[in-house]
Amino acid sequence: MLETIWFALWGILWAVYFVLDGFDFGIGALSPFIAKNEGEKRAIYNSMGPYWDGNEVWLITAGGVTFAAFPKTYAVMFSSLYSALLLILFCLIVRGVAMEYRFKFISQKWRRFWDALLWTGTFGPGLLFGVAFANLFRGILIDKAGVYHGTLLSLLNPYGLAGGILFTLIFTLHGSLWLAVKSGGDFGERAGRLAGRLWFALAAATVIFLGATYFSTRLYDNYFKAPYLFVIPLAAAGALVFIQVFAKKGEWLKAWFSSSVFIITVTLFGVVGMYPNLLISSLDPAASLTAFNSSSSPLTLEIMLGVALVFVPIVIGYQIWAYRFFGTAAGAVGARPPSAVQATKMRQET
Amino acid sequence: MDALMLSRLQFAAATFFHFLFVPLTLGLSVLLALMETAFVRTGNEEYKRMARFWGKIFLINFAIGVVTGITLEFQFGTNWSRYSAYVGDIFGSLLAIEATVAFFLESTFVAVWALGWNRLSPKAHAITIWLVAIASNVSAIWILIANAWMQNPVGYVIRHGRAELYSFTAVITQPFAWNMIVHTISGAYILAAFFIMGVSAWHLSRKNNVSFFKSSFRVAVTLALVFSVVEMVQGDIHAAEVAKYQPAKLAAMESLWDTTKSAPEYLFAIPDPAHERNRAEIGKIPGLLSFLAYHHFDAEVKGLKAFPRADRPPVALPYFSFRIMVALGVFSLLASLVGFLRRNSIETRPGLLKLFIFAIPLPYLACECGWMLAEVGRQPWVVYGIMKTSQAVSPIGASQVGLSLAAFTALYTFLGAVAFHLIWEQARKGPSDESALDGSTDEEVGYA
Question: Is ipTM strictly over 0.90?
Answer without folding.
Answer: yes
